Amino acid sequence: MLKEFGFPSEFRFAKLTHYQKLRVRLSSAGWRAILKYMTLQGSTPRAGNDPKSVVIHLTTGTGVEIEWKDGHRSVYTFAFLRDACPCALCEEERTKSGRKAGEAAKLAPGALPMFKPAMKALSAEAVGKYALKFSWNDKHDLGIYSWFYLREVCPCGECARTRTRV
After folding, report:
1. Do 61 and 79 share a domain, yes or no?
2. Do 55 and 96 belong together in one domain?
3. Where are the alpha helices (DSSP H) in 3-118?
4. Considering its fold, how many domains does the chain have in total?
5. 87: containing domain
6. Could you tell me if 131 and 98 lie in one domain?
7. pLDDT of the residue at 47
8. Which pLDDT does position 104 carry in this prediction?
9. Fewest Cβ atoms closer than 10 Å to its Cβ: which of 35, 50, 112, 140?
10. Do 18 and 74 belong to one domain?
11. Does 74 lie in the same domain as 31?
12. 135 backbone dihedrals φ, ψ, rounded to 5°
């Protein structure tokens, strides 16, 4: 598996860069071995990234409320979450247009705004113990919103100030 990328077969996974690990993971069924060696940013446990409670307002269509174990409270609208979709397709589109996660797409100069129905989650499901996955009314359902990612893109003023300082 590693020879395909120019690495000797006895090369240790821990010595690979994140990009190399990703290439190996995507090219082979050995992705589980790769994940074992990938580390979270920082060396301390992130207890604050685990939710204490999660409320998803599917019927009212208002969004998601998360109370984190460290006492922080996050409220996400469905429109924000759809615009912050972490899937590769949406991430690439945001990067090309220079948008941040959760930021709505801007109209091109001279373009007329078209009617778009309000963004709504049709269903939500837990992905293991680490994430949520939504099916949206625009038929998109590829994004897996990990607790770490949701805390990272928290739209509250306190978190926004922290992100601008860093």
Report:
1. yes
2. yes
3. 18-27, 31-37, 78-83, 88-97
4. 2
5. 47-104+119-165
6. yes
7. 57
8. 85
9. 112
10. no
11. no
12. -110, 120
Q: Does the pLDDT of residue 33 top 70, yes or no?
A: no
| Residue 31 confidence (pLDDT) | 35
pLDDT digits (tens, 9 = 90+) for 49-87: 789 999 999 999 999 999 999 999 999 999 999 999 999
Q: Which two tokens stand for residue 82?
A: 């759809």
In a domain, 149, yes or no: yes
Distance CA 26, CA 6 (A): 16
Nearest Cα to Cα of residue 86 among 131, 151, 143? 143
List the CATH number of the domain containing 140.
Answer: 3.30.2020.30
The whole-angstrom separation of Cα 131 and Cα 58 is 17
Q: Which distant-in-sequence residues (6+ apart) come within 8 Å of 76 by Cβ?
A: 63, 64, 65, 66, 150, 154, 155
How far from the centroid of its chain's Cα atoms is residue 71's Cα? 21
